[in-house]
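RETRY 2/3 - previous attempt timed out on the joint model. Re-submitting the same 470-residue input unchanged.
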Amino acid sequence: MSHTPPRVLAFDVFGTVADWHTSVAQDIAQRIPGIDGAAFARDWRAGYKPAMARVASGELGWTRIDDLHRMILNDLLPRYDLADMPEAERRDLNRVWHRLAVWPDVARGLARLRSRFICTTLSNGNIGLLTKQARHAGIQWDCVLSAEVFGKYKPDPATYLGVADIFDVPAHQVMMVAAHQSDLDSAAALGLQTAYIERVNEFGADQPKDVSGNQANSFHAVGFNDLADQLGCTR
Amino acid sequence: MSHTPPRVLAFDVFGTVADWHTSVAQDIAQRIPGIDGAAFARDWRAGYKPAMARVASGELGWTRIDDLHRMILNDLLPRYDLADMPEAERRDLNRVWHRLAVWPDVARGLARLRSRFICTTLSNGNIGLLTKQARHAGIQWDCVLSAEVFGKYKPDPATYLGVADIFDVPAHQVMMVAAHQSDLDSAAALGLQTAYIERVNEFGADQPKDVSGNQANSFHAVGFNDLADQLGCTR
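RETRY 2/3 succeeded.
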């Protein structure tokens, strides 16, 4: 497959940039001695797609991820015998998604990629969350785009095509960068280029995930520095 | 007046961050020997508010600043005997707004302000323009917010209040930073804090503007480093 170089890289964030599993598991484990933090993190995250589906179906009006995270958390706490967690602590715990660490290759790899390409988020996370998470992790985007800008959650075409529209380029000059093949498949179906990033420990080191990706992706990289190498960015 | 510190600084861009006059005047002067670049830049900019007013009134549907700039340019060129400028050059000239230099205090002052506050644009410029301009000038935002996100141009309240909403803070925890008193007045009426920035040469050194601002502003600064000093940012 030959590619004209993209002009814009659009990054998925949860899992691709940010190691949500480690950050959430550690946060809850520090609060609640003896809790299975890894399981709690996975259970919280597991509520994410069903919650967005309720928005996409119209059952819920437009609802930010911050608020969806909180709804999922409220349902989850009783299952961990934490139904009595006070409101202030729930609120602080919910903001753990603003404090996610990034994978070790991200800070340098992203800086290298930004030297050649416009690098924007394209996440279902809300703008405030994404902005605060980047500040917390010490990383830098050219632009923070979110489902919130388009009023639709990925995989709605309005999100992928919205990036091309905002930067006034054809879809094939945008490359979606994600650790999730389904996200890339949705982007590719609309003509975007795709880069698969291996995040074998996205769900924790005890539950390694399949990172074979799809051979049809424009690029396949073990991390952001590998992607930067493949795209010819200076070291 | 005593102030609780803001959490978010929202920056006007054209004139406040970017020295549009110098950049536009130089660009056209390099293309067209003998043209009065300073006047051309001012005439182009003078079409900006009337063009946005056509959008606000509903006469035009939502139209990006890139496209409004181009409409104004098309009207302007014949007045400078440049009606025969070819399409490709018009397109490139129109993108001068993506290549605006910033005032000398901006790069360092903004970095200092970002060390304590979330710093976002709040400009009528479109997201693509603002993103490319920041890359061109080598400056860094936490987030690029634009009228384009809200579907309304400043001074529509949806823009100012939209920043507070996105960052989930009350209006008084957002501070509008601008070199234009009218922008600050609109923000203050909605409860935002305000910082007036002196840009005496916004319209060119030959046409210094009144930079007295209004005493009711929360802050009044000669530039971004002065504002950073007043806000207690480390040097």
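Chain A has eleven helices and six strands. Closing ticket.
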